[in-house]
Amino acid sequence: MCVHMGVCMCMCAHGCVHVCLCTWVCACMCAHGCVHMDARCSPGVTRGCPVPRALLVAPPGPLGWVRPQPQPALPPATWGHPEGRQPPGPEPPLSLCLPAAPVPRRKVVRVKVVKKKVLKKKPKAPAKDPAAPQEPQCPPLGLESLRVLDSQLRASSDKRYGLGAHRGRLNIQSGLYDGDFFDGGWCAGQEDKEQWLEIDARRLTNFTGVITQGLNSIWTYDWVTSYKVQFSNDTHTWQPCRNGTEEAVFPGNKDPETPVLNMLPSPVVARYIRINPQTWFENGTICLRAEVLGCPLPDPNNIYYWPSDPVPTDKLDFRHHNYKEMRKLMKRVNDECPNITRVYSIGKSYLGLKMYVMEISDNPGQHEVGEPEFRYVAGMHGNEVLGRELLLNLMEYLCREFRRGNPRVVRLVTDTRIHLLPSMNPDGYETAYKLGSELSGWAMGRWTYEGIDLNHNFADLNTALWDAEDNDLVPHEFPNHYIPIPEYYTFANATVAPETRAVIDWMQRYPFVLSANLHGGELVVTYPFDMTRTYWKAQELTPTADDGVFRWLATVYATSNLAMASEERRLCHYDDFMRSGNIINGANWHTVPGSMNDFSYLHTNCFEITVELSCDKFPHASELPAEWENNRESLLLYMEQVRDPVAPPALRAGGRTRPWGPQMPPEALHPPSP
């Protein structure tokens, strides 16, 4: 700012105060209060003041001077130069500030700088299988698998003993008669909102959810449509499950069989849990079956309640494997043991899924004269999954133990050609797998995609044999072994599943001696015949000519199975098989026309039994290690029967006719490679 008295006071871009006298000498006062005589005048000053015009547009300061805009600091050698240019040489300490000609204003060109934003790609998460079941984080307590004992279940009331609290287990099945001593669920003796079913977890448990079903019965329809949940640590003081400030009411079932899962609003830690029905089917009464989800918490003050289940020493892949994961596991085993394993397919399911078989032998792919052929088949019913997982674990076990030099496994692999079919009904398994272990129910996935029960889909050779025996045509006019398949069964319009045709072709190509068909839902071993001779009877003892051999085979498996041999186990549903050593003639249990066991025996002379592995058809993944321990010895011991010197002679000879002898069909002696 210039004053008319001839004195000019201004502030330069560096914060220094300039006093310009009439003699045009510049005196500069720096920020430290020192006065400097400066003659470094530059173009663009006003009335002799070394202040650029651009700085005069700033608002005045407190002393009336012009307040400059903030500028970057310059080195001392460039002070007095608005553009920071270094003078060409030394300057005198004092000189005259001559007025400079006005410089035209430069056009300011604004350049927009665009910074390119570089997006870093995040690593892709591994793709999740869309068919994978959404398993709850906490496993079931074990009402269905019988890990929860009858003494841990109580109820406010019940109609009768057969409908007591001990029957309120998920997927439990009732007897065939109304009022059976062992019925299909818990039913309250009164119809009011004060009824409850109580489960004692025996230790502090982090409860997370409840699964319910209605009553299993062919005579009545009963289920609970809504219920509340309560918790306690002493059975005297009960706290309701709340959803915020209100007591939570959970939706129940809409039919007797479909399981309904309700997760708690937030996990609750307690020892006891009660299910308190609020409403029920209007034409029925209060009846339900249940399973509870919860994670047990260790109690350092009481080791009695610590888990006592045996911990497997075998490091195997204990989890449920869908179709893709099953293929990966079989390939991994084949890569680990290429000299003793071979993976091949015997056909495809209706939806095109291949039916893979793992062969384990010292010379895979070759039939050796005198070496018996053995097979295990699992997954005939898609929702009975334990056999599938056991065979996958058996593949891993045989491979690893052979590499370690286990003499028992080496002898078994060297002397026997083993074939393992883990999934005979892959379409049905995928259906059950999508729902998960607790929500697939009792029958979802049992049948093929076409709705065919494979255990009733094989050719009925029993009726033809028995008719020929009644007419004295056996054995001169009608054979009693290697019975041919009826012509009607081979027609294109015959109701035969592609899975069944693939297995029949497999049986005809390989001279199997011994076999077992792995199922689930009970704890028992059955043997042929599976079909009653009196066609109108549902149960009838129908033995074969080799009944002693079959009883031996069934006993070998049942007595070496830890779950079946346990004296403390309770009934799975309503049949007491412990009285007969956990074995039974199939037809004497319930008739099964067209079973694979009967067909295998009559058409190929292969001895085959059915093993019901567990009360729970689809056990939770957390239960698979214990199930492997229950069945490992049984699986190995049963295979060894083809070479056991104490086995019945008929079995060691390969059945009623030695499969590798001259009476075997010629195509079986040299089966083509799949």
Task: Please tell me about this protein's structure.
It holds the Pfam family Peptidase_M14. It is found in: Secreted. Residues 67-93, 120-141, 648-674 are annotated as: Disordered. The protein is an alpha+beta fold and 674 residues long. The chain is 19% helix and 20% strand. It is built from 13 helices and 22 strands. It has helices spanning 323-336, 386-404, 407-415, 426-435, 462-470, 498-509, 547-560, 562-565, 586-589, 596-604, 624-639, 649-652, 666-669; strands at residues 8-11, 17-20, 26-29, 35-38, 153-155, 186-187, 197-213, 224-232, 239-240, 242-243, 246-247, 250-251, 260-280, 287-296, 341-348, 354-360, 373-378, 417-421, 512-519, 524-527, 583-585, 607-612. The strands form 4 sheets. Strands 5, 6, 7, 8, 9, 12, 13 and 14 form an 8-stranded antiparallel sheet that branches. An 8-stranded mixed sheet has the order 15-16-18-17-19-22-20-21, with helices on both faces. It has a 4-stranded antiparallel sheet with strand order 1-2-3-4, with no helix packed on it. Strand 8 and strand 9 (239-240) form a beta hairpin. The chain is globular, with a radius of gyration of 43 Å. Residues 1-7, 20-26, 38-100 and 653-674 have low confidence and may be disordered.
